[in-house]
Amino acid sequence: MGVPNEVIESAWQALEAGIINYQGRPVGTVAARDLEMDALNYDQCFTRDFFVSALAFLMKGEVEIVRNFLQETLKLQSSEKQMDCYKPGQGLMPASFKVDHSGKEEYLIADFGEHAIAKVAPVDSGFWWLLMLRAYVKATNDLSLARTPEFQRGIKLLIDICLTTRFDMFPTMLVADGSFMIDRRMGVYGYPLDIQALFYNALRAARELLVPEDEYIDVIKERLGHLAYYLRLYYWLDVDRLNEIYRYKTEEYGIKAVNKFNIYPDAIPEWLKDWFPDEGGFFVGNLGPARMDFRFFSQGNLMAVIGQLASEEQSQSIIDLISVRWDSLVGRMPIKVCFPAIEGRDWEIVTGCDAKNTPWSYHNAGNWPFLIWLLTAASLKTDRSELAQFALETAAKRLCKDNYPEYYDGKNGRLIGKEARKFQTWTIAGFLVAYELVNNPKHLELISFPEDDVLIACSQELPT
Ligand code: GLC
């Protein structure tokens, strides 16, 4: 079965209907166009959401809207150095923006999370911006925009805010809860995988975009090496590693400690012991002192595959795991944002009783169809085109008919999300990108990276 042409055509129409114009030029897309629900802030253009639209436009050869977005958001980037903790830090890219039509002239108003729920800083926005710029360069074969002084400065401000000295002992990036696509309290504070994988890919993009003789290049290279070493070693979980952790000794001191993070074997959740297949593996959701979050996070794992943060073998294992545990992770709609849901007392404590994130809904193990672009890309990167095709066909059966919901609920993603908006733009765009990728895998170049080979252990690390 293929995907009928009418479905693709109507998806394109739905995407184009969401375009936002500013001073007569297209600059972005709204988050959703559901006429039956209050717009809230869904009438804004979100940086992370627009990344998916941008890919669809670039794959179709419509590059202007992407260039305009990159130029306008660069102007919105927070660029003043200040110590006022109520203002966005220098280098931060907005979570979203909207066009103000109230006066004679039009203005763009940026939101750095101040107007969103719980006021979380959008750490991921700058990463998506860098990845979009790189995709734009790849699609147009034109480096001149990226090499202008304004763009070079913007890239460096982003690198500064990421690599600045902090109270840190790890190469990973420390963030508050809800600093990325999961923008509510979900126990994803500290060192969440999704942020680390995005950080890695964005640094790789920055390395390509800066002029080769730039002094930032060496610093970026070094951080990339540390990150890859650290993630591949300490975040990785397969059955052998699980067994090692199960038999870990604790309370070890110093650099010879095997259990470097003092993980207590009793912290291994019961569900994992039966669920973990013999084949496959994945990067755990988070790692910190006495803390390993054993949940599976799709975006982080799939990003690690396309950016080659995962080794070749680990990439194959991640896709093996998804394919063996398809029913749990994909079910009726690609793909769960994370697995499994947090329930009962854990849900109360971890989410603060968040009524939108009830078990198996929304960020708490709901199925998010926009992620199909990533699932398809990662499947193609690991030469599993049959899986990409199957995911696309699974989504095609329902998305158009259901009017492109934001998310689906339930253990197998069968029900349209309780509070899901219809005509959610990144659902439409994610589907179109998946379709374009399956039909022309060469597009993968826009978003994937080859193996980097540089793994750098910290000087105190002993080989294990
Ligand atoms: C929700 C999602 C966020 C997305 C926004 C707009 O807040 O959690 O990731 O960017 O909606 O679609």
Provide a descriptive summary of the structure in words:
This protein is mainly α and 464 residues long. Helix content is 42%, strand content 9%. It has 16 helices and 13 strands. A three-stranded antiparallel beta sheet has the order 3-4-5. Strands 1-2 form a two-stranded antiparallel sheet. Helix 1 (5-17) crosses helix 16 (425-439), helix 2 runs parallel beside helix 16 and helix 14 (372-381) runs parallel beside helix 16. The chain is globular and about 70 Å long. It starts with a helix and ends in a 25-residue tail after the last helix. The structure holds alpha-D-glucopyranose. Alpha-D-glucopyranose binds next to helix 2.
Write a brief caption for the model.
The chain is mainly alpha-helical and 464 residues long. The protein contains 16 helices and 13 strands. Helix 5 packs antiparallel against helix 6.
